[in-house]
UniProtKB/TrEMBL annotation:
It holds the Pfam family Flavin_Reduct. It comes from Streptantibioticus ferralitis. The keyword Amino-acid biosynthesis does not apply. SMART domains: Flavin_Reduct. It comes from the Bacteria. This is Flavin reductase family protein. Residues 18-161 form the Flavin reductase like domain. The keyword Nucleotidyltransferase does not apply.
C-alpha cells in the first residue's frame, strides 16, 4: 500500500522521501575573516559544470559556520572515505571545536585542507544563491586531488559503505 501526502513545509513524509536518496558525504572547510578555521558536513554536493569546472554545495543558514562562508573567498570540499563517519559527525555537530586534535594544512586562501580523505577540491567561491533555508555555494575548482579508498554514503539517516565491487569475468 502506498501512502501519499501533500508535499510541503516540514512534513515527516517529505523528510522520509528525501532520506531514501543516497548521497556521498563531504566536509567543507573555510576560514573566517579572523583566520579561524570553520567547516560543516554536507550531503548536498554536486558537480555543476565541466567548463568552467564548477561545483555546488548547500549550507544550512542556521549553521554556526554560515557567517564564515558568507564572507569567504574560498572553500575546500573533502569527499569522505567509508571509514570516516566519525569525521562527518564531528563536522555536523553544532558548537563543537571541529578541528581539535585534527591535522590540516593551509590551502587556497589559507583554507584548511584535511588529510586522508577520498578526494579534495580547492575552490574559489564565485557565487551564492538563495535556496530557502539554505544557501547554495558555487565554487570554481582550482585544484583537485584523488586518494585511495571507497566513498562514505548517507542514506536512510545512516552512514553506509558501498558493497565491494564484483569482478566481471
Amino acid at each position: 500500500m502506498t501512502i501519499t501526502k501533500p508535499v510541503g513545509g516540514e512534513s515527516a513524509t517529505l523528510r522520509d522521501c528525501l532520506a531514501r536518496w543516497p548521497s556521498g558525504v563531504a566536509v567543507v572547510t573555510t576560514v573566517d575573516q579572523d583566520g579561524a578555521r570553520r567547516g560543516f558536513t554536507a550531503t548536498a554536493f554536486s558537480s555543476l559544470s565541466a567548463r568552467p569546472p564548477l561545483v555546488l554545495v548547500c549550507l544550512d543558514r542556521s549553521a554556526d559556520c554560515h557567517p564564515a562562508f558568507d564572507g569567504a573567498e574560498a572553500m575546500a570540499v573533502h569527499l569522505l572515505r567509508d571509514d570516516q563517519a566519525q569525521l562527518a559527525t564531528r563536522f555536523a555537530t553544532k558548537a563543537a571545536d571541529k578541528y581539535e586534535d585534527l591535522s590540516s594544512t593551509p590551502g587556497l586562501s589559507r583554507v584548511p585542507l584535511l588529510d586522508d580523505v577520498l578526494a579534495r577540491l580547492e575552490c574559489e567561491l564565485v557565487n551564492r544563491f538563495d535556496g530557502g533555508d539554505h544557501v547554495i555555494l558555487v565554487g570554481l575548482v582550482r585544484r583537485s586531488e584523488v586518494f585511495p579508498g571507497e566513498p562514505l554514503v548517507y542514506c536512510g539517516r545512516l552512514f553506509r559503505s558501498l558493497p565491494p565491487e564484483e569482478s566481471s569475468v
